[in-house]
Amino acid sequence: MRAFYVAAMLAVTLTGCGGEEFQDLRDFVNNAGADMRGKVEPPPDIKPYEPFAYDNSTSLPDPFKPRKQDARNPNRAGQNQPDLDRPKEELEDYPLESLKMVGYLHQRNVGHAVIRSSEGKIYRVKAGNYIGLNFGQILSVSETEMKIKEMVQDSAGDWTERESSLQLVE
């Protein structure tokens, strides 16, 4: 009888191990996308390039030529224009990126920035002085930075203000 129980237990054990492992998972993966169909839109028709020739007979302006000044407002290009006849200061010969603020002085209740040029020369400037290539005027000087208002000209000839600053470098 004992042999019968051992044989029955062995048969049950072998039956449990006889199947393929994870077969239900493999069946799911194989059949999961069976009823799904993807659809890809066909690419659009490519239209041939048609060049456009600019000539004097059209009323369209040539995009490669600078715009002309507005005839109704002849002073428009001169609006915000800096004083071009003013004598230039020494630091207006240097691009702003090549100048470094290396110190700060306070004399007679006026703050002065100590500026070093790319050539190693040292200059002392204060609010109101001009600096850089873009008609930059120093607005204020503090112990850590110097604020500058620059005037730049766009492609239409209009002058616009741009604020910049120089930070104190250690």
Structure write-up:
The protein is built from two helices and seven strands. It has a domain at 88-167: SH3 type barrels (Roll). It is 15% helix and 26% strand. The chain is elongated. Strand 4 and strand 5 (136-141) form a beta hairpin. Strands 4-5-6-7 form a four-stranded antiparallel sheet, with no helix packed on it. The termini are far apart. With 170 residues, the protein is an alpha+beta fold. The mean pLDDT is 81.
Summarize this entry quickly.
With 170 residues, the protein is of the alpha+beta class. It has a domain at 88-167: SH3 type barrels, CATH 2.30.30.
CATH architecture label name of the domain at 88-167: Roll
State the separation between the terminal residues, measured CA to CA: 97 Å
CATH class of the domain at 88-167: Mainly Beta
| Rg estimate, integer Å | 40 Å
- What are the low-pLDDT stretches, counting only 5+ consecutive residues below 50? none
> Strand order, biggest sheet?
4-5-6-7
Tell me the structural class: alpha+beta
Oligomer: single chain
Question: What's the order of the H and E elements?
Answer: HHEEEEEEE
CATH topology of the domain at 88-167: SH3 type barrels
* Helical stretch tally: 2
Mean pLDDT: 81
What is the share of helical residues?
Answer: 10-25%
For the sheet with most strands, the description reads: 4 strands, antiparallel
Number of strands: 7
The share of residues in extended strands comes to 25-35%
Shape: elongated
